[in-house]
Amino acid sequence: MTTAAIRFQAAAFRQDRRGVAAVEMALLAPFLVLLFLGVVEVTQLVRVKTKMALAGQAIQDMVAGQDSATATSLATAFAGGQLVMTPFSGTALTVAIASVSFDSSGNANSVTWQVVEGGATGMTTATACALAAQMSLGGDSVIIVRETYGYVPILSYVLNKTYALTETTFGRPRNVSSISAPATSTGPTGSC
């Protein structure tokens, strides 16, 4: 092959635009797939957080409708919250349910009772009182439901760790000013 022929072929190669789109797609495809998978993961994470809010509200609503709390009724409320988490795993949900009473001037007075479900760690008395202080209900009480959910991503190579999500829900007892305590309180109780 002569030098002129090589120059001619090189010039023809530089001017040939066939396959440029395929090369560009090959360069961008891994990034686009990773971006798509990341959007799927973040969407799932947001869905779990939304389901947690609904589950917490359902648990709080079931507890607030009672005149007195029992271990069975609280376990049933927790089971209802686990069902609300569907299609996600309800077994990753843990809950601490507390009743905080207020004095006549609206200051959080004491954590009357607290029950943990699903292996949760109970709220400290200080935490429960600080959360209840946002309500300021003179002479009344508030039910606090604090949930924790261990979210495991479906595609662990995009988001590669377990995320501990928390959600807190408040509500007032509907039928009485303070729901009477269950026979055993499984979380910290006491004065604020």
Write up this protein.
The protein is an alpha+beta fold and about 190 residues long. It has one domain. It is built from four helices and five strands. It has helices spanning about 5-15, 20-65, 70-85, 125-130, and strands at about 95-100, 110-115, 140-150, 165-170, 190. The protein is rod-shaped. The model has no long low-confidence stretch (mean pLDDT about 85).
For this entry, give a set of tags:
single chain; 192 residues; alpha+beta; 4 helices; 22% strand
List strands and helices in order, with pairings.
Blueprint: H1 3-15, H2 20-64, H3 71-84, E1 93-102, E2 108-117, H4 125-132, E3 141-151, E4 163-171, E5 190-191
Antiparallel strand pairs: 1-2, 1-3, 2-5, 3-4
Helix pairs in contact: 2-3
Average residue pLDDT: 86
What is the straight-line distance between the termini? 93 Å
Strand order of the largest sheet: 4-3-1-2-5
Strand pairing plus helix content: what structural class? alpha+beta
Q: What can be said about the biggest beta sheet? A: 5 strands, antiparallel
Please state the overall shape, judged from the principal axes of the Cα atoms. Answer: rod-shaped
Elements, N to C (H/E): HHHEEHEEE
Summarize the structure.
42% of the residues lie in helices and 22% in strands.
